[in-house]
Specification:
By secondary structure, the protein is mainly α. The chain has one domain. Helix 1 runs antiparallel to helix 2. The chain is elongated. It starts with a helix and ends in a 5-residue tail after the last helix.
């Protein structure tokens, strides 16, 4: 890979990750509304909630796991090298932006913008976010190991064969 391609891939990490993040959020929104609509259609007007969860709850739980996972998965796979470190940086960026949004919403209670979730729901959303982060970092670590293995084989194609073989005299 040429130097220009590596530079362009590093430049594309954040835009690609953010674009995938937004696309997944729209997809989850559509799927949650579709599931809610199908439940209303199949069960009639008596079904207010789908499996006792509103469409908003389904969307929030889906966003809590799939959006950060997609952000980090796409970002780490676009990065040409150091995928695990790129995953950690994207995790910190995601955590910082999430904390910033929450800190802007909590003090705004007198102005009518509040977070009306129970502590159980907030804890569950945090656990889903942590599960997404851990899953994405495990995938980034696997991709990093595969990339190193490929680089080692392409740089010295004979040594892996010799290390695996035991020659007898």
């Amino acid at each position: 890979m040429t130097l220009l391609k590596k530079i362009l891939r590093w430049v594309a990490v954040l835009p690609a990750a953010l674009l995938a993040f937004i696309a997944v959020m729209f997809l989850i929104h559509g799927m949650a509304l579709l599931a809610h609509w199908l439940a209303l259609w199949a069960l009639g007007n008596t079904a207010v909630n789908f499996l006792e969860l509103s469409a908003e709850a389904i969307e929030r739980f889906g966003d809590a796991f799939f959006a950060p996972f997609t952000l980090m998965y796409v970002g780490t796979h676009v990065a040409p090298r150091f995928k695990f470190i790129a995953g950690i940086v994207l995790t910190l960026l995601n955590a910082y932006i999430s904390a910033l949004i929450v800190s802007l919403l909590y003090p705004a209670a007198p102005h009518g913008r509040t977070i009306e979730d129970s502590w159980f729901r907030i804890t569950l959303l945090f656990v889903l976010w942590v599960a997404a982060v851990v899953s994405a970092l495990v995938e980034a670590r696997k991709a990093d190991k595969e990339k190193r293995k490929i680089e080692q084989i392409t740089s010295d194609p004979i040594s892996p064969l010799i290390e695996g073989e035991h020659f007898r005299a």
